[in-house]
């Protein structure tokens, strides 16, 4: 169990301490097909958002001054306990501190903007290209 905790801690530190790129763009090989280029941009955009989720949630928790409910009677934490805390956290964000949520949305749009520009340049979302 200690090995698992160490791995999770090191992964968390790697995500938090990784240098933030200001001009993020997907690296595309010109020989790839249009679908491959669009998929590469999409994958890199999702990866960029996912690697910034943990620090953003931590910043929202600090901004909202949220503290988790203690487990009842010292029992192990159940899934209901997690769901209740997540619900209370987002309720507090939306109702009491919408400025924290606005900050998160602003950061997310700044992260995705270079990738969305690349998607427009590649014309990935043309109606004639839809598979379904």
TrEMBL record:
Pfam families: ACP53EA. Residues 1-24 form the signal peptide. Keywords: Signal. InterPro entries: ACP53EA (IPR009392). The keyword Signal applies. The keyword Signal applies. This is Accessory gland protein Acp53Ea. It comes from Drosophila pseudoobscura pseudoobscura. The lineage of its organism: Eukaryota, Metazoa, Ecdysozoa, Arthropoda, Hexapoda. The gene is LOC4805680.
